[in-house]
Amino acid sequence: MNTAKLVALILMLGIVAVGCATTHVTKMDTEKREPTTNVDIYTDKADVKVPFKQIAILNAEGGAYASPEKVMKSLIEKAKKLGANGIIYGGQGSKTNVSTLSGGLSAQSVNTAQAIAIVYTSTP
Q: In the chain, which end has fewer C-beta atoms inside a 10 angstrom radius, N or C?
């Protein structure tokens, strides 16, 4: 592969990455659960009207071009994979990641969101 094609490929991958969202998980228990197909969204613990257990802390980050909706979708999809029945949404924000590449300084703004994944301990 010649240098021009390699540079073009790296640039394309970089553009795709800045529009993606990733959710990091901190598990609060070790139980394996089947994935769920629906996740209820709450904005406060008091809004959950059935007994529940917190199973994970979810932290999502999206690149500079990831919409808030894409970041929220990443949280929901990760909660489903964990077998959660709902999330308690902690809100969205943004942060700046600073790095040094080839001796220069680079800053990138990223969208963030946080939530707690929950499972119901009795039927709603």
A: N
pTM of the model: 0.75
pLDDT value of residue 67 = 84
- 69-78: Cβ within 8 A, 24+ apart: 70/19, 70/20, 70/21, 71/21, 71/111, 71/112, 71/113, 72/113, 73/21, 74/21, 74/22, 74/23, 74/113, 75/23, 75/113, 75/115, 76/39, 76/41, 77/23, 78/23, 78/25, 78/117
Per residue in 71-85, pLDDT tens? Answer: 999 999 999 999 999
CB 56 within 8 A of CB 84: yes
- CB distance 84 to 36 below 8 Å: yes
Closest C-alpha among 85, 84, 54, 58 to residue 72: 58
Strands 40-42 and 86-101 turn out to be parallel
What residues contact residue 83 under an 8 Å CB cut-off, 6+ apart?
A: 32, 33, 34, 35, 36, 55, 119
